[in-house]
Amino acid sequence: MAATKPSSLLFVVLLSASILISSEAREFLVGGSDSAWKVPPTTTDSLNQWAEKNRFQVGDSLVWKYDAAKDSILQVTREAYLSCNRSNPLAEHKDGATVVELRRSGAYYFISGADGACEEGQKMIVVVMSERHSLRGLAPGPSPVELEGPSIAPATGAASRTVAALKTGVVATVVVLAVMSRLIV
Ligand SMILES: *[C@@H]1O[C@H](CO)[C@@H](O)[C@H](O)[C@H]1NC(C)=O
Q1: 3-state class of 71 per DSSP?
Q2: Residue 112 sits in a domain of what CATH number?
Q3: Among the atoms of ligand 1, which is closest to the Cα of residue 77?
Q4: Where do the TM regions start and end (predicted)?
Q5: Domain that includes residue 32, residue range
Q6: CA 87 to ligand 1 center in whole angstroms
Q7: Quick check: is 62 in a domain?
Q8: What is the DSSP string of 34-51?
Q9: Tens of pLDDT along 166-180?
């Protein structure tokens, strides 16, 4: 039985690393802080403003921190989101530290389970880019604006994040190809 050559071991390690880097899943703390899941202080839609500034990809996760005695998170349909209907959610989370993995592309609708909070604006739409969008990188995904109605500004930081991710993936791939060509020659 032949021992594994160090060079092919290195190749496997680098290949795995490049796959991990290019499909790196991210965790997003909803609203950007531990206390963000609450009724927004002004009538502007602050949770959706936060969501619009980010680019979510399949495999990413949303993380919420909140007081489980006072609040919860309901994942609901678009209709229930618009009417703040809490009666029959798709999913309910009330543990105070919730992680929701975004397993498919498209829109996710979240509202607060606390009395009256959704009506006062504690609700959020997260749009996860399709895999095709992720690969092409730069085409902007649909924003909550298109899904719900008039709102504020388009996302800006997202494109640069995607470019950075693409660059990292390209660099890793080039390294792997370089190692491969050495093995072949
Ligand atoms: C809320 O949703 C449930 C089912 O999901 C429905 O039966 C009920 O009529 C809705 N309530 C309102 C006020 O729309």
Answers
A1: coil
A2: 2.60.40.420
A3: 5
A4: none
A5: 25-154
A6: 6
A7: yes
A8: TT-SS--SSSS-HHHHHH
A9: 555 555 555 555 656
